[in-house]
Amino acid sequence: MSGEEREPAGVPKGPTRGRGLVVSRRDHSSGDRRGTRNEEPTEKRPRGTARDRALNLLSFRDRSRRELERRLRQAGFEDDDVAEALDGLARAGLVDDARFARAVVEQEAGRRLSGRRVVESALLAKGVDRESARAALAELDDPVAERARAEELARSRARRMAGLSPDVAYRRLVGLLARRGYAPPLCRDAARRALAIDPVDDSA
Predict the structure, then answer these.
(1) 3-state helix/strand/coil string of the chain
(2) Number of folded domains that form the chain
(3) Which of 37-46, 75-84, 137-146, 165-174 is the least confident region?
(4) Residue 184 counted as domain residue
(5) Which of 76, 91, 106 is where one domain is finished?
(6) Left, alpha or beta for 113 (phi > 0: left; psi -120 to 50: alpha)?
(7) C-alpha span between 64 and 162 (Å, rounded)
(8) Is residue 97 in some structural domain?
């Protein structure tokens, strides 16, 4: 070759000559991808402690122990950590199913004037254990008090139905009382009294 030495095979030509072997960017990226595929996925751990998360949940509203257990497990905390955190909060008086059950009864029966059946469903839906629920519901076992709540609810809603015909108002009022957990005979009687409908119109 007219006095020039032949370049060794495999050495890149051009600007990289004399600087050593250069590995292309494609080679690096393909190696990285292969390495990533071989790595085991890292398990995601929840932030903070189970106790801190429970306290944060309680800062919004009171909750049953079972509801807290469910939320903490969904957040990724181990069963032992959850139990330890809730046991400590129970000793501190911050988790108390009996107190929580009484508050639910007051909300449903005292403010919303719901019947016993709906109050019981609300307690179970919120995770209150059956023993605490049964104790809280004991005060609702009085049929006279149950009738008084139904009639009070019927009167309060009847005032909003002044523009409706008697039969339409009656059907709507009976439906409302049934959804609030009252027995059908009591629903009909309370609606009839609130609307001043004669008993002979009971089949309306």
Answers:
(1) CCCCCCCCCCCCCHHHCCCCCCCCHHHHHHHHHHHHHHCCCCCCCCCCCHHHHHHHHHHHCCCCHHHHHHHHHHCCCCHHHHHHHHHHHHHCCCCCHHHHHHHHHHHHHHHCCCCHHHHHHHHHHCCCCHHHHHHHHHHHCCHHHHHHHHHHHHHHHHHHHCCCCHHHHHHHHHHHHHHCCCCHHHHHHHHHHHHCCCHHHCCC
(2) 2
(3) 37-46
(4) yes
(5) 91
(6) left
(7) 41
(8) no
Residue-range definition of the domain harbouring residue 55: 50-91
Token pair recorded at residue 85: 């955190």
Identity of the amino acid at 62: D
| 197, 176 contact by CB (below 8 A) | no
pLDDT recorded at residue 18? 46
Residue 109, domain member (yes or no): no
68 lies in some domain: yes
Summarised one tens digit per residue, pLDDT across range 152-176 is: 999 999 999 988 999 999 999 999 9
Alpha-carbon distance 152 to 158, whole Å? 10
For 39-58, give one letter per residue: b (16+ CB within 10 A) or e: eeeeeeeeeeebbebbeebe
Q: Which tokens in the block code for residue 75? A: 């957040």
